[in-house]
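Format notes (please read before filing issues)

Several people have asked whether sequences and structure tokens are stored in separate files. They are not. Every record keeps both together, in the order shown below: the sequence lines, then the token lines. Line labels are part of the format and must not be stripped during preprocessing.
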Amino acid sequence: MPWQAHLAIRRFAQAYNAGFCPYRPAMPAPLTESHSAVFSPGEQESFYRLIASRRDMRHFIAGTSVDEAVLMRLLSAAHSAPSVGLMQPWRFIRVADPALRDEIAALVEAERQKTAVALGERDGEFLRLKVEGVRECAELLVVAMAPDDGTVFGRRTMPREMALCSAACAIENLWLAARVENLGLGWVSMFAPDALAALLRLPPGGQPIAILCLGPVQAFYPAPMLELEGWRQGRPLADLMSTDTWDRPDT
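Then the structure lines:
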């Protein structure tokens, strides 16, 4: 990555930490008749269409790039995610070294082979699936949870779970922002956390939770890839709802 890009990222981070972000207002705009917090029907429709069209992408166009300003918008969206107790446990590591990318790809491949063994009779079917785009994607990001900062507010009984949920919210924000920028994103979870943590020199207590492949794609899948490949079908919402208690289906 050229030095100008490194400088731009550093300046952006300094400005963001100082309370300024060029991609969103520092404070909510006052509510007026012409500008309010109420979304129009068209905006609502666009938002739900965005959610419905999000896909876990595995196929990327090799040799492409993501504009620096776009990448900063995506990371800003991720950093705008809610977090329990405002702990903001997420950390984003941008993989710029091609050799490091190759090492990460090797970790993913090692886990892919172990997963195939664990699947037993479906091993061959699994190995035919494309489950990542680590080498082809334009940008490779790793999301890690920072060491516990001692936040008690909202997470006294479930400290690690709430940190993980908060970081996952940041990933979802990034995912949706990527889709609205017409970029594909794939969440790779096939890796040994300790090995990846050592490779990225995470501090004690830090844990990688996601390898994110980001970049231009030829086309977005019309449905989740695992459904298209016949691996598994998504369940209808009605099967996953109940009233008052777990064993009382919603009617």
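For reference, the curators noted about this record: The CA atoms of residues 138 and 215 lie 5 Å apart. The longest helix spans residues 98-119.
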